Amino acid sequence: MSREVVKKGETVVLIDTSYRKYLVHTGGKTDKIKGVGVLDPTSLVGISYGMQIEVGSKKFWVLKPSLMDKLQCLKRKTQIILPRDAAQIIINCAIEPGHKVLEAGIGSGALTIALANAVAPDGRVVSYDKREDFIKHALKNLKTVKLDKYVETKNRDVTLGIEEKELDAIILDIPNPWDAVGHAWNALKTGGYLCTFSPLSSQVEKTVREIKKHGYIEVKTIENIQREIIVSEHGIRPSFNMLGHTGYLTFARKILL
Q: What is the separation of C-alpha 162 from the centre of its chain, rounded to a whole number of angstroms?
């Protein structure tokens, strides 16, 4: 069986025996990585993917980064939409390669990365945010995982209007999504999906009332709660460290009136 090796310029993920993860760009300069030590990224070139190596006093597996790896290694500036909620957004909004999707509220770029991964290689994500510092930070994260070419950012307030038309999906991660519901209706293609992410039930109530004024169908709100199950030699039990509520996801679909 032939083995694929790390090439110069690739981004790899290093996973230690405690499953902590570090993204490393093999074309970068020697640097000190927090929790790892000094590492010359070019020393990884030629190593077979899947092998375990030693860096300092630690051992790491070298692998190609998955989408989950990219999201878990994200440098956060704000609270992010977690992978479990991003997965629900992609499925419930039927986001596929080639789609044109708009998000409002780029934050640290976690959802942006998941969306760009879903629409690649022929689709595009347009991201609105009122804060330029959030956009700059998110773009750094996108460039690290080489997904920035699928994303266009705009320093805009989505509640003042949406420039794009015939969008396949719109995701609103803003405090007042109800103020953008009408703009979303005008920007979506027939059959396109609207999704809003809100941490508070009062936000959901106000948003759904506005959605129903515009005649969307398939309106539903879900709360996505997951619990890891610990499997050991002695038996199975639920994890004691469960993160419950993150936010409410509301979905709706545009039709012709």
A: 22
Q: Tell me which CATH code domain 70-253 carries.
A: 3.40.50.150
Q: Can you give the length of the chain in residues?
A: 257
List, for residues 110-123, the tens digit of each pLDDT value: 999 999 999 999 99
With 0.85 as the threshold, say if the pTM is over it.
yes
Residue (of 145, 149, 99, 151) closest to 125 by Cα position:
151
Per-domain residue ranges for the chain? 11-65, 70-253
Q: Is the pLDDT of residue 1 over 70?
A: no
Provide the Cα torsion 81, 147, 100, 176; round to 10°: 30
Rounded to whole angstroms, the Cα distance separating 100 from 255 reads 18
What DSSP assignment string belongs to the chain?
Answer: ----B--TT-EEEEEETT--EEEEETTS--EEETTTEEE-GGGGTTPBTT-EEEETTEEEEEEPPPHHHHHHTPPPSS----HHHHHHHHHHTT--TT-EEEEE--TTSHHHHHHHHHHTTT-EEEEE-S-HHHHHHHHHHHHHTT-GGGEEEE---GGG-----SEEEEEE-SS-GGGGHHHHHHHEEEEEEEEEEESSHHHHHHHHHHHHHTT-EEEEEEE-----EEEETTEEEE-S-------EEEEEE----
Cβ atoms of 164 and 126 closer than 8 Å: yes
Pick the CATH number of 11-65 from 3.40.50.720, 3.10.330.20, 3.90.1150.10, 1.10.150.130: 3.10.330.20
For 256, counting Cβ atoms within 10 Å of its Cβ (0-12 exposed, 13-18 middle, 19+ buried), the class is exposed
